[in-house]
Amino acid sequence: MKTDPVQATLHGLVQTFEKMLHDIPAQDGAIDVRSGSFYVADTTAIIPLVGTARGAMLVSMEEQVACKAYAAFTGCDCSQVDDDVLDGLKEIVNIAAGAAAARMVPYKVGLGLPTVMSGQKQRLLGNPSAPWHFVPMKSKKFGNFWIAITLEEV
Amino acid sequence: MRVLLIDDSSTMRKIQKKSLVEIGIEDITEAENGRIGLEKLQADGYKFTFVMCDINMPEMSGIELLKAVRADPNSNKIPIIMCTSVADKEVVLDCIKSGANNYIVKPFSSEDLKKKVQALGLMS
């Protein structure tokens, strides 16, 4: 049976938040399919997906949301987004992608090294053959954020 | 109960330390990779109750550490729980073959970790 990569991504993200950030975020609107170039939020962690299907997954948050998520994740205080917070977001996307990849049947998908971008008005340029699927998420504890995936069969 | 926590990510060490504290384990020594972990294990006289170790690390990986610990008669009985972010059968098999007592897949809750420690017979 083939698993929808978007559903696998949602599962991985929700499982990560539930177990490690003690919150269950929910989808908050329709999935937005994006190709070409587009803006992402101030703090965005991206991880490459490699294997029999390839692409990438991202978690994108405004600074305030990232700070709250980091505090819940590590148990440390957070007043501003610094390197520790960026590293925390990197771990969140790494763990969520690991859980998602395990469900991307029938593909065998491994993880590359995650990268975090921080700053305003950042644009991503996607691959035209594999559009990004952005899922708006809402967390009662942290606020709104996005998760997204792009995946194509090799 | 004394735990040696080995992970190259300082963020992951913070998170795992938080989980260990939540299940009542507060005597925790941290190491940034397998080599430093092995040094701390030796320096301590092999008295840790158990080791919690990441798999992918620079310098000395978790699997390399496992093999080194199991090859040394001073440390070959210390329980080791391996942590992985990918529930890959081959990775898990490699851990077990190399001498891991148990493994835990991220994401995990404090309750999940407690069950793994209980399975080692170290906690009721």
Structure description:
Helices cover 31% and strands 37% of the residues of chain A. With 154 residues, chain A is α+β, with helices and mostly antiparallel strands. Chain A starts with a helix and ends with a strand. Chain B has 124 residues and is of the alpha/beta class. The radius of gyration of chain B is 13 Å and the shape is globular.
Pattern of helices and strands of chain A = HEEEEEHHEEEEE
Mean pLDDT across every amino acid position of chain B = 92
Strand order of the largest sheet of chain B: 2-1-3-4-5
The proportion of residues in beta strands of chain B is 15-25%
Which class best fits the helix and strand makeup of chain A? alpha+beta
Point out poorly predicted stretches of chain A: none
| Mean pLDDT over all positions of chain A | 94
Gap between N and C termini of chain B, in Å? 13 Å
Q: Report the radius of gyration of chain B as a whole number of Å.
A: 13 Å
Shape of chain B: globular
How many helix segments of chain A? 3
- For the secondary structure, the number of strands of chain A is 10
Oligomer: heterodimer
**Main beta sheet of chain B: strand number and arrangement?**
5 strands, parallel
Label the structural class of chain B: alpha/beta
Highlighted features:
heterodimer, A: 154 residues, alpha+beta, eight-stranded antiparallel sheet, 10 strands, 31% helix, globular, B: 124 residues, five-stranded parallel sheet
Task: Please summarize what this structure is.
Chain A has 154 residues and is of the alpha+beta class. Chain A has three helices and ten strands; from the N terminus they run H-E-E-E-E-E-H-H-E-E-E-E-E. At the A-B interface, helix 1 and helix 3 of A face helix 1 of B.
Q: What topology emerges from the helices and strands here?
A:
The complex is a heterodimer of chains A (154) and B (124).
Chain A: H1 5-21, E1 26-27, E2 32-34, E3 37-40, E4 43-51, E5 53-61, H2 63-74, H3 83-101, E6 109-111, E7 115-118, E8 122-125, E9 132-139, E10 143-153
Antiparallel strand pairs in A: 1-9, 2-9, 3-8, 4-5, 4-6, 4-7, 5-10, 9-10
Chain B: E1 2-6, H1 10-22, E2 27-31, H2 34-43, E3 50-54, H3 62-71, E4 80-84, H4 89-98, E5 102-105, H5 110-119
Helix pairs in contact in B: 2-3
